[in-house]
Specification:
With 750 residues, this protein is an alpha+beta fold. The chain contains 31 helices and 19 strands. Among the domains are: 152 residues, Hypothetical protein af1432 (Orthogonal Bundle), CATH 1.10.3210; 150 residues, Beta Polymerase, domain 2 (2-Layer Sandwich); 80 residues, no CATH class; 75 residues, Alpha-Beta Plaits.
């Protein structure tokens, strides 16, 4: 008994100590010191969660405390947000309601807590994703108070930091969801540091081996990088001292996830990532009004020391990014013949880069300043949310569309500058100006030349949108549009037109049925759906309304049960064939097979050779092979589909159907099964090279070639091969052997 009390005492001390640290952090900020309400929120949450433990074994209250610390220290928010962070799980996990929170802490904190509380209860159909619906609810509240999403990101960051204590399937679900939606959101809100940590942690759980490999390579090359940094920055320091500036110079190392991403997209090994190091110059302007000029003065000074790259000056100072980011980026040729990016920013700009929009409030005076780009983005979110009942998963994709997009700057005919996401089209610009302009858009003039709606805009383009009153929204516009706003508006208009067509179709069909004395019953609708090979009644009515289907004699005969001369096709005969009976029985017993493996989602599923052939489906979208990091997705028919973890389809499934994700692991050893892989090979062409390549593959490694295409151009050859292998180690051995052939420069798995 004494031991238990002692343990409880230790936990209480830990909780009190952590809360004291939070208070000290809060008191060190520039916010109003509302200690009383923060203490009240902590005491209330502590009491509500008393006796409850997290999966890691620590008291539950440690999680809200950790989230509150992130909100305070890493995002820089004040007492309202700290209280909301402390209370964010109370309504979801205890008997207290939002009304209780409102009575004790006021409407603002209650509204934020409500926005952070998941929708519970069985209100979802089988096809609907609860995750996407909860995210939609979160954004609904966010559009009226941005702090909701900032606290949610802090909550997600702490969950990612403590992900190790969860079950493997849960880890994959949370990591996938983080990479798909929360990291882009953090980026969009200017929380660059948090975005990077979320990406790295997700990557660590999804691809643990690659994570450790890149981490150890970064550590091994650290001394060399430090030396490059020192040699590069010494002359810059001398120059900045002469200018009399108060400054600091920091090395910025590319994140592990960014390195891996670049290796995947550019198909290059770690040794060929040349932008691992960037240099950051952060200065204190002598006069805040001269901040912009100081950036360019520093640029001119460093350009005298090192030659700048002519095409790689990025002026985010005069035109801040949509997430508020400001800095001047210049790429300089370093003393070792290596291009190094230098980011020049003031202390204020650095704060905004680290803490995003939360830092804007810190620098706002009198609260009158317009939030600019953030307001525009929130307005877009509101417009998408106003769309009548968009499908939750489409909605998630729509929101995500321009979260991660880089920006371009374009001009209206009158010379007004507008910020658009990269890859935006003329059609996107039309909807960006106004929904009516978008709906009636027929084309555009870009730099005074006529272009189609699908034309991709470039930075600096001047665009005039051409409209016509008779123009209507077309279904193919969904292919042309790339921005969330345009796609949402087009979908809404198409749905509206579909509803009009359905109403017309209903009138036409009812008149037809009345004329033929046929009752409008569901059995008759089913007959028509079957006749026209259409899935839903709504589609049928729309097709009738759009005159694609015109009810006539064939429909009448089917509805009245007349078989006409084609009666045979409506009947099926069973001739009692013994083999047929046996076949039927066999199919039935296989479906009901009691020996079929029961899958426990809480355990890691081992993929054996036998199971691949019987129980599981290998996804064709990413074609995983033994040794790849994989996961399982259980579909509606309880079939497990195996995907690579980084497969775009799998990423979507993790974010939308996390409860169907199963942690999987290969257990095939050297199986007799062969899997197809693509290898891309390139190098310098010479006589006999193709023979050398096939000798290595077929003779030395005994690998079967399915397909081999090689093209040569000006002394350079490029080839694509399809080979049968057993696992990833076969692929690695193959790549290493091929790279030893003289003149073969790159070999990459596709």
């Amino acid at each position: 008994m004494k031991e238990t009390n002692h343990k409880e005492m230790t936990e209480e001390e830990l909780i009190d100590q952590t809360f004291q640290e939070l208070l000290n952090d809060y008191l060190a900020t520039k916010h109003r010191k509302r200690v009383e309400i923060v203490t009240k929120a902590f005491n209330f949450a502590n009491q509500a969660h008393k006796g409850i433990k997290r999966r890691s074994g620590e008291p539950y209250i440690m999680h809200p405390l950790a989230v509150a610390k992130i909100v305070c220290n890493e995002i820089g928010l004040g007492s309202t947000s700290i209280c909301s962070a402390l209370l964010h799980d109370v309504v979801e996990d205890t008997d207290y309601t939002v009304e209780d929170i409102e009575n004790l802490f006021g409407p603002k904190i209650a509204q934020i807590v409500d926005g952070l509380t998941k929708i519970s209860g069985g209100i979802f159909g089988d096809k609907v994703s609860a995750q996407a619906e909860n995210f939609k609810k979160l954004l609904l509240t966010m559009s009226s108070d941005i702090r909701v999403i900032l606290i949610k990101i802090a909550d997600r960051l702490h969950n990612m930091r403590t992900l190790g204590s969860l079950l493997p399937a849960k880890q994959l679900k949370i990591a996938g969801e983080t990479l798909y939606i929360y990291a882009p959101l953090a980026n969009r809100l200017g929380l660059h540091k948090i975005k990077t940590e979320l990406e790295n942690l997700s990557f660590k759980y999804e691809h643990p081996e690659e994570y450790e490999e890149i981490k150890s390579k970064l550590q091994a090359t650290a001394t060399e990088r430090d030396e490059v940094f020192r040699k590069f920055t010494d002359p810059i320091r001398v120059q900045l001292d002469r200018m009399g500036l108060k400054y600091r110079i920091m090395a910025r190392i590319k994140s592990i996830y960014s390195i891996w991403n670049k290796m995947q997209t550019k198909h290059v090994p770690f040794d060929e990532i040349f932008d691992l190091l960037a240099v950051r110059i952060i200065f204190e302007p002598q006069n805040p009004e001269e901040e912009l000029n100081d950036c360019f003065d520093i640029y001119v000074s460093v350009s005298k020391i090192y030659k700048p790259h002519p095409d790689r000056l990025r002026d985010w100072v005069s035109h801040p990014k949509a997430n508020g980011y400001q800095a001047l980026h210049v790429t300089l040729m370093g003393p070792g013949g290596q291009w190094i990016e230098v980011q020049i920013r003031s202390e204020r700009m650095n704060d905004v880069a680290e803490q995003g929009f939360a830092a804007h409030w810190k620098y706002k005076e009198g609260g009158g300043e317009d939030e600019g780009e953030l307001d525009k983005w929130l307005r877009t979110i509101k417009e998408i949310l106003d769309d009548p009942q968009p499908d939750a998963i489409d909605f998630l994709d729509t929101i995500k569309l321009n979260l991660f997009a880089s920006e371009i700057f374009v001009f209206t005919p009158k010379g007004e500058i507008k910020t658009m996401p990269q890859n935006a089209t003329a059609l996107d610009f039309a909807f960006f100006l106004h929904t009516d302009i978008g709906n009636h858009c027929i084309g555009a003039k870009v730099n005074h030349k006529l272009v189609p709606l699908s034309h991709k805009l470039q930075s600096g383009d001047q665009i005039e949108v051409l409209t016509s009153k008779s123009q209507r929204v077309q279904p193919q516009w969904l292919i042309f549009a790339t921005t969330a706003k345009a796609r949402a508006k087009i979908s809404t208009m198409l749905k509206k037109e579909q509803r009009i067509a359905q109403k017309k179709g209903e009138v036409i069909l009812n008149e037809f049925l009345l004329r033929e004395d046929i009752r409008p019953e569901s059995i008759n609708y089913d007959k028509l759906l079957s006749l026209h090979h259409i899935r839903t009644k709504e589609e049928l009515l729309a097709d009738i309304g759009n005159k694609i289907i015109e009810p006539g004699d064939v429909d009448k005969n089917v509805l009245k049960g007349k078989q006409s001369s084609n009666w045979k096709k409506y009947l099926t005969f069973s001739f009692g064939n013994k083999d047929a009976k046996n076949n039927t029985k066999e199919v039935h017993t296989r479906e009901e097979d009691p020996s079929k493996e029961k899958i426990n989602p809480k355990k890691v599923l081992k993929i054996t050779e036998d199971a691949i052939q019987k129980n599981y489906i290998i996804a064709t979208c990413c074609s995983p092979i033994p040794g790849d990091d994989v996961l399982g997705y259980m579909d509606e028919n309880e079939k497990v589909i195996i995907h690579k973890r980084q497969c775009p389809v799998a990423v979507k499934l993790k974010s939308n159907y996390g409860n169907r994700i199963i942690a999987t692991k290969w257990d095939t050893h050297k199986s007799s099964l062969s899997f197809l892989v693509n290898l891309f090979i390139s190098g310098i062409d010479n006589v006999g090279l193709l023979n050398d390549i096939t000798q290595v593959i077929s003779r030395q490694l005994n690998v079967n070639i399915r397909k081999l295409n090689v093209e040569t151009n000006d002394g350079i050859f490029e080839g694509k091969m399809q080979l049968y292998v057993h696992d990833v180690s076969d692929v690695k051995r193959l790549i290493n052997k091929l790279l030893k052939i003289p003149n073969v420069k790159t070999v990459i798995r596709g």
